[in-house]
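Researcher: Last one for today. Full complex below.
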Amino acid sequence: MGAQADVGGAGDLKVTGPADTTEPAQGSARPGGAEVQIDGIGKTFRRSGRRTVALAGVNLEVRAGELVCLLGPSGCGKSTLLRIVAGALAQDEGTVTVGGQPVKGPSPDRGMLFQSPMLFPWLTTKKNILFGPKAQRSRGLDERDDPELDAEADAILDTVGLGKFGDAFPHELSGGMRHRAAFARALITRPSLLLMDEPFGALDAITRLRMHDFLLNIWEQYRTTIIFVTHDIEEAVLLGDRVAVMGGRPPGIGEVIDIPLGRPRHAVDADTESFLVAKRRIRASLMV
Amino acid sequence: MSAWRSLPPLGTDTLIDDPPARLDSGDRGALDEQDDRADLAAYRQARRRARTRRLAIGAAGLIGLAVAWQIAATLIGDAVFLPSVTQTVHAFLHYWDRPYPSQGKPLWYDAVISLRRIVIGFAIGVVAGVTLGAAMSASRVARHLVDPVIEVLRPLPPLAFIPLFIIWFGIGELPKEVLIVIGVTPIMAITTVAALDEVPEDLLLCARTLGASRLYTLLHVQIRAALPGILTGMRICMAGAWTSIVAAELIAATSGLGYLIGQAGDYLNIALVFSGLICIALIALALDACIRGLLLLTDPSRRT
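Model: Here's the assembly. Have a good evening.
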């Protein structure tokens, strides 16, 4: 899978994090997003005697409610960094804190979206959305009862424009609908941070434009912090408050560029001059 | 790695469903992206119509075979060489509950005997194979340990073991059941490993970021996602198990449908031979339908 092919040792990526327990969701009524502090992260993969430095000395601060894009070519370690923040992968050096709490393992407080929507094919759209709350309830982390969850799932289905497709199975949905369903599934656990790993990379160009508008619209409503990984310059400029350009040897974050476009943004903002200027700036930074 | 992906060669098999929908990024999806008012009910109805049409074509194929058989039998006009459909049906109904002289048992008795051997051997083989496969998927050591054993044993036709099993286990039921177990176990182990391996790591990570514990993820996602693959393996094994048991009964048994067919052939009762064949086909179809039912239950994308 493209998303995993970023580093030589991607095969070592383990689903489970360094800690054995998943962290509980931080207060489910939290409005908006959490700030993220990434300090001196280093990661080296060892595979059959060969060492590959995937990340070295990475620092990044993401403000609460900000949308930051990680931009870079394949193999620059952006997916690795995202997985470390998710708690799916343990770093060798450095610390990550989200909302002041150090990351110790995967948590519903940090939702994740992938290039493939990763819906559970045996569940209907609505049951997919209810997976998180029910899994949390089975260990006493989610207090909401069935009617309450049901109502919330219906509301979220409407929000993502799938109101009529709660009973559809994933294979019956279109590509864009599947991504919107995956969004809804991540949103219902009320994460304070969304980690997005090239989520629209496999969609056709037109569906992708729609998903950009969709994401910007949802983000205006929820204002969770988002870290968005992409290798598409235009996508990064259109979505991000800031764009962190990744690359180099050993891989890390180079420049972090502010995008001087207003909010709320729409896909049509790609036709403005400041968009082009920002794009040119990032391209120059990538070519160094 | 690729050795795990390749399934064993299929013998007699009936895996002719439409392929399941793929949910990876290459799939554009069923409903129209441009039209959010696309109607799910209409889409499902269209799929149902397509299914009815497919079933009708399938039924026409079977009827065509029966008609061709009947015409051929009429033209040949020799019931010992090729009995007609009507003669076969007559023999089937006649011997269903009347003992065939050379054996002294009716058709249903042999059918039950064969079915019993299959069910016992198949159940043990599936449990052993899935357990072995799960262990191989979970532990690298188990995988490297068991893999060569399976690779060595798998190409051996189970029938070649019959003389050995008669010496080891006598001539009772045990050697027949063991025969099925050794045919089913390695294939189930391989398909189980493949099914578990094919569950994307990101699907498990996804469940974990939604708040599922490790145990919940294992039970409700990893094993659940592998079920359709395991059930497909069971369909392959069931077909293979029938082939083995009937052949074994032809060679070394005093009961069962294979034995009945052999006896009927020796006495030139060809209508009874065909009755035995039809009985085998019907039971195999019914057993496959059971597993297929489970498959449809676990994999909505195969429901049409």
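The radius of gyration of chain B is 23 Å. Chain B touches chain A at residues 20-21, 23-33, 36-38, 40, 43-44, 200-214, 216-217, 220-221, 224-225, 298-301 (CB under 8 Å).
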